[in-house]
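PT: before anyone asks, these are the final sequences, not the draft ones from last week. 513 residues across everything. Please model them as a single complex and drop the result in this thread when it's through.
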Amino acid sequence: MGNLIIDGKRTDGRGPLDLRPLKLEVGTIKNAAGSSYIEHGKNKIYVAVYGPKDSHRYGTSMEKAIIRCRYHMSPFSTDERKSPQPSRREIEISKVIRDALESSLILDEFPKTLLDIYIEVVQSDGGSRSASITAASVALADAGIPMKDLVEAVAVGKVDGTLVVDLSDKEDKEGEVDLPIAFLLNEDMITLLQMDGKMTVDEFKEAVKMAKEAAIKIKTKQKEALGKKYFEKADEK
Amino acid sequence: MMPKKGPIISNLRKDQILKSISEGKHIDGRELSKQRSLEIVPGIIEKAEGSASVKLGDTHVIAGIKVEVGTPFPDTPSEGILIVNAEIFPTASEYQEPGPPDEDSIELARVVDRGIRESKMVDFSKLVIEPAKQVYVIYVDIGVLGMGGNLFDASSYAAVAALMTSSFNVYRIDGDIPVKTDEKMAMPITDFAVSLTFAKIGGSIVIDPTWEEEGIMDARLTAVYDNDGRICAMQKGGSGGLKIDDVFQMVDLGKAKYLDIRKKIVEMVENAKSGN
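LR: through. Structure below.
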């Protein structure tokens, strides 16, 4: 306590509301129906979307496409080698990411199909689930899946008693609160919300508002990345 | 990886539930902000170091504590270890197949784990036998015997009650080997937190959803409150979104409600401890 914020600056020099550098690319995996790559802080994450593909296997629905989602960390993505088997953490994160994205999608146009979202974290840093959601939503747009809006996610938190946006790995580990949130901004909705650590109800509400401001900034990056692929292509013609 | 297939709710039943909720009542007749009947019975498993059975409406959960000795994690050499595991037994419903824990069980265990860990209810610094070498490993195993919705709260209460009433044999280091003694030690409990789960159904916010209600809800939110009404863990679930205002309403409702449940847990645990 007491060394994460010095003179109003965070350990990496950011102010409380500043995001880490964020870079997004669309169409990075040729075989996929949609794909993306994100660098957010030291996170490096690839997302591929396959489908909707016809399926008659158990578990498909007559009403809508069924989403499967795998969030996976490569063995070389962490300081200590990570076992390639999916951990319990990865299984849970796969589930909450699927939920966070599903609420943005219009899936009843694709009954009896599967839509696979594969997220590969090749280098991990704080906020990898948030970065994964931001990137996966762009990949889904790239795949042409109808959606209500893009989804963007960011972790807010409390370090040294101060609310800050976009936690670094150090702040996530040593800070008091980690609160990843995903937004569907058009609908003023939250599609993912998890929290570790203690804060008052009022602090929580303030944190949500800060996260929303950050999500608006991230959405601009998402649109730029999609624009770069589609509008520049259109310009060439 | 596969989304969970729950109970199939007929359209007729769905309309019934939605109508009831629009009239301000759960389908079982409760008010929307009222929890189902809650029964907590600690100490039901003699062979466990601590245990509790919780019935929340039709949901039946048992939590058992086992304590072993192990090596601490390198980054926390002077702290004991907590491991929470959950299994939805095939007894719970016709939809539950036997097999390794599915994503629902894993999420359940991890949310309960977060509530215990982040509320700092167990003083892990007192669970050290020899720093960096031997510490106590606290296993909290949760078994869902009957499915009736809102597993998060039922499992959390069971885990909390089991921990609060647990005691275990002290180990002493003999040479390099930990040896079990006859001396008993109570679980070092500092505080505990109360889990409350809300669901958004048909435009209304309800507390403690039933299984059928979960089948038609848009989304749910679990928030865990400490003694001072601060939130120490949260988890949103379900494939729908929640309006930001809904989330704020839910956490406010939780703040107004957590003390009632806290009192209930304390009362039932004290009853059990005084050995009736």
